[in-house]
Amino acid sequence: MRIILTALFIPVLLFSRPQRGSDAYDRIKNANALYRAGTYDQAIDAYEGLSASSPPADIAIAARFNLANTLYMTASFREAASLFSRAAEEKSADEETRAAAFFNAGNALAAMAGRSTDRKQTHTLLRSSLMQYRQSLLLNPNALDAKINTEIVLRRIQPPPPASLSSTTKKNSDRQSKISSAMKERVLNSVHLEEKALLKRSYHPPGGKAQKSLNKNW
Question: Does the reported pTM lie above 0.70?
Answer without folding.
Answer: no
